[in-house]
Amino acid sequence: MTARFHNPVDTRFGCGSLRELASLTANQDVALVIFPEARALGLLNRLQLLLGERLVHVVEDVQPNPDVAQLRDTYERFWREAADCQTVIAVGGGSAIDTAKALIVGTESGSFDDLLELLSSGRPFVPARAKTLIAAPTTAGTGSEVTPWATIWDTAGQKKYSLHLDCTWPKVAIVDPELMMTVPAGVTVSTGLDALSHALESIWNVNANPISDTFAISAIEDILDCLPKLRRDLGNRELRSRMAQAALKAGMAFSNTKTALAHSISYEMTLRYGLPHGIACSFTLPLVLGLAWGRDEARDRTLQRVFGPDLHKAQARLREFLHSLDVKTEFGDYGVTAKEAEAIIEFAMQGARGRNFIGSRAA
Ligand SMILES: NC(=O)c1ccc[n+]([C@@H]2O[C@H](COP(=O)([O-])OP(=O)(O)OC[C@H]3O[C@@H](n4cnc5c(N)ncnc54)[C@H](O)[C@@H]3O)[C@@H](O)[C@H]2O)c1
């Protein structure tokens, strides 16, 4: 079997790499999408100084989990006021980066509902207008800076839209661990677990290959070692840097495989039970590991490189790891009955991401 790995993002990594934004956007008008706390942290001011007059539009009221209810106004204002800018820079967690991904896909009319209609069809489309995206993550988790996907939530309608086009691959990713120094403990843990979930989901995946495995194994080893230490020592630059790199590697892994069952389950848990994304897609990892084990020899070999040959010990290790971070690992802990959990898993297996899982009946 031959393998193919493709990731078109020009990726820069390291403390201080944010400064490269200036040379990357010379002679352009740019818009900035940034997380709300950035103003008080002095980061917005720093970016305004760095970008100077080329910065023509700022979106700073990004809410966790970008929702249609709020995106509509942001989108329509962007296309009304900043349609001429060439580049959108996203500086923030996955919510800011995914918001920017939605903004750069322009409809003919500038109407957000026209975009939703295109997304509802589930078919690929060529946008009437598009902008270039530069993504600088400020959390170590989503990997959205090296993937083309964006999740747009519709909490009121209890559904989500998945955006994925050629133009939603960022052109450049700037992963500067300095930007992550201010992330609070809870978000550090939940985003770190999102990255762990990306790495594992890329392994128990019908699209896995030896190249994605290499990124995934390295990310898992780093996260298992590093995240508990970082939680106790949030100001540690070295640990922030290792987690930033681990999240990037996990992002590279799933940029080629997509996610699988744990993420498919997570969407229900976020929409129906309000769980933060990183917790929703990681609390089931020990369970999903059990469902993956024994399905495929090559996948077992990769999982065993990380966890050794004993499934029970492997599940116990993952469970203990999550418990050590105060993350509960059973559906019941989140108010979901056994019967409801069964239905959620069954439904998730049939979702687009669930079908990537090696244990799904369609796999
Ligand atoms: N596109 C993808 O491939 C992909 C993958 C995973 C998740 N996601 C999406 O990403 C979103 C979650 O992103 P997230 O987990 O990074 O969280 P987030 O972006 O929602 O950020 C969490 C909180 O931390 C704050 N914050 C971010 N950076 C900070 C910093 N440096 N200092 C202080 N506070 C900071 C934010 O303002 C927010 O309140 C969800 O909508 C999810 O669907 C996308």
From TrEMBL:
Gene Ontology BP terms: antibiotic biosynthetic process
Alcohol dehydrogenase iron-type/glycerol dehydrogenase GldA domain span: 8-177
Matching Gene3D superfamilies? 3.40.50.1970, Dehydroquinate synthase-like - alpha domain
Look up the record and name the cofactor or cofactors this protein needs: Fe cation
Output the InterPro entries linked to this UniProt entry. ADH_Fe/GldA, ADH_Fe_C, ADH_Fe_CS, ADH_Fe_PsrA-like, Alcohol_dehydrogenase_Fe, PhpC
Task: Write down the PROSITE patterns for this protein, in alphabetical order.
Answer: ADH_IRON_1
Q: Which keywords does this chain's UniProt record carry?
A: Oxidoreductase
Q: Name one GO molecular function term.
A: metal ion binding
Keyword Oxidoreductase among UniProt keywords: yes
Q: Name one Pfam family in it.
A: Fe-ADH
Q: Report the residue ranges that make up the Fe-containing alcohol dehydrogenase-like C-terminal domain in this protein.
A: 188-352
Give the EC number(s) listed in the UniProt record: 1.1.1.-
- Please verify whether the record's keywords include Cytoplasm: no
Return the similarity comment.
Belongs to the iron-containing alcohol dehydrogenase family.
Q: Could you tell me which PANTHER family the record lists for this protein?
A: ALCOHOL DEHYDROGENASE (PTHR11496), HYDROXYACID-OXOACID TRANSHYDROGENASE, MITOCHONDRIAL (PTHR11496:SF83)
Q: What is this protein called?
A: Putative alcohol dehydrogenase
